[in-house]
């Protein structure tokens, strides 16, 4: 088992309106995160009534938890094809610097890869490597 996600925390948002999709995909998504090293206590699953509620629930996770990323468990084409939902999700990603993936079990590897990239880039950012300069003007 890989340990790459051992210190990562995830929120999974499940829209009850996609009941059949959820039955097939929630457990495999959680298992994929665990296979990547995520501890069970670092996976928070929240349920919302409809797809319409996914954006605000993503905002809640970004604002009120210390999650590193959010998985929206939903048929990718249903969410990606809804302009208003995608606009809201993109705004959350930018505002909160939060990785958000949409889909099923395949999202586990994708979200971990993106968080690793984010962490690497943060460590390599010039402000983290810059010698402190004093402005005497």
The residue fraction in helices comes out at 40-55%
Overall pLDDT metric: 91
Q: Count of helices?
A: 6
Rounded to the nearest angstrom, the radius of gyration is 17 Å
Low-confidence runs: 133-137
| Percent of residues in β-strands | 15-25%
Helix-strand topology string: EHEHEHHEHH
The N- and C-terminal alpha carbons lie at a distance of: 56 Å
What does this 3D model show about the protein?
The chain is α/β, with parallel strands linked by helices. It is built from 6 helices and 4 strands. It has a 4-stranded parallel β-sheet with strand order 2-1-3-4, with helices on both faces. Strand 1, helix 1 and strand 2 form a beta-alpha-beta unit. It is globular, with a radius of gyration of 17 Å. It starts with 9 loop residues before the first strand and ends in an 8-residue tail after the last helix. The C terminus is likely disordered.
Keywords, please?
6 helices; 51% helix; alpha/beta
Give the SSE layout.
Layout: E1 10-15, H1 19-35, E2 43-48, H2 54-64, E3 69-73, H3 76-80, H4 83-96, E4 99-103, H5 106-124, H6 126-129
Parallel strand pairs: 1-2, 1-3, 3-4
Helix pairs in contact: 1-5, 2-4
Task: Write a brief structural summary.
The chain is of the alpha/beta class. Helix content is 51%, strand content 16%. Mean pLDDT is 91; it is low at 133-137.
């Amino acid at each position: 088992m890989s340990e790459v996600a051992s210190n990562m925390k995830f929120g999974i948002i499940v829209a009850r309106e996609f009941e059949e999709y959820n039955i097939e995909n929630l457990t495999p998504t959680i298992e994929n995160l665990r296979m990547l090293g995520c501890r069970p206590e670092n996976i928070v699953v929240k349920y919302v009534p409809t797809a319409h509620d996914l954006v605000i629930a993503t905002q809640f996770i970004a604002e009120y938890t210390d999650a590193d990323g959010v998985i929206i468990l939903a048929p990718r084409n249903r969410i990606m094809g809804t302009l208003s939902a995608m606009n809201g999700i993109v705004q959350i990603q930018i505002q909160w610097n939060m990785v958000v993936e949409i889909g099923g079990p395949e999202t586990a590897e994708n979200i971990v890869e993106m968080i690793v990239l984010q962490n690497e880039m943060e460590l390599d950012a010039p402000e983290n490597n810059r010698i402190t300069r004093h402005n005497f003007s």
